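FORM 7B: Structural annotation worksheet

SECTION A. Query
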Amino acid sequence: MKNSGVLRIGFKLLVNDKGKFSALLIGITFAVFLMMQMTAMFAGILDRAYANVTNIGASMWVMDPGVNTAASPIPMPNYLEDAVRSMDEVSYAVPIFIGGAMVKLTDGTYQAVNVVGLDDDSLFGRPQLEQGNIQDIYADNAFMVVDDAEFSKLQNPKIGSTFELNNNHVKIVGIAKVASNGLNGVPTLYTTYNRAIQYIPQMHFTLSYLLVQPKSEAGVAGIKQKVAKLGYVAFTKDEFNSNIADYYIYKTGVGTNILLMTIISFIVGLAISGQTFYTFIIENLEKFGALKAIGAKGRKLVYMILFMATLTSLTGYGLGILLVTVVISSVRALSPYYAATITYWNLGLAFCMVLLIAAISGYIGVRKVLKIEPFDIFRG
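SECTION B. Predicted structure
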């Protein structure tokens, strides 16, 4: 490699100054840790906000235009079900009920729950059962409970356990598991659609969402247009998730707070690494001047400085990822309520931030080194 000699010298200069090298690594490591921690928390919040969409798994959702999240439906008239089913592009469409209720436990205490009512005929969107038989959902007063982080709030029910919901008897006939836990911190019960709207008082309309399966991808646009003419909206699963994400980013304080903390973390890392790197350059000016004096061109010194800044930043990035992975894994093992999730996009965001830190730190060093005159160094 043409510049390998200069890069080797830069590496030795960097690692031999153990104090400055350690300070650079610590600053960048904790900056990456904070950036990853903040964005991982936000990713975890969004992942749980998508829970109903993920767990039910419908290709398209028809809803009122005012809906912000899957957990907050706006009831729609029942005629919409027949109207959508009659569309040529639709393979099938089934209703679903999603709503909140209070159950009275055997010890007399009350617990909020999320109730999902599945289409009576198809049970489309049903969870995978760990215990019980899905056909038992048709028995009188039958409900299934999800075994997730909130399961213990119902006093760890078993098959045959009973509750009281709005003065109605509830019997657990199945214990299920789902792909994603909910965001609201309440247990989830599944039953049939008609039983859900019977047990939970509603306004005049009872249809929370209409789950639609298009005949083909080409028919999606047509379904959207026809549903829009009826005064409602049809989203694909990804579009609904995007709509939920926009709500939390732009219409709540969550997105703003996470963004602010991420920016602060970036500034802290930049300040520490920039200042430490500048001090390192100042303390080694005579060495850079000596390199110039023996014929090292300015371009080679620029390569050296950028190599040193990039090496430090990428090493700090790796250590920061390791640290945040250990912390998130440890906290998750201790608390099932912890929602942080490491994703490709927050890894990529932190990587871009680290590259920016390296570029700015390198620029600071390059400006100082290029101004060095060997005569001034030797004269001093």
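SECTION C. Observations
The first strand starts at residue 60 and ends at 63. The mean pLDDT is 85.

SECTION D. Sign-off
Analyst initials: ____
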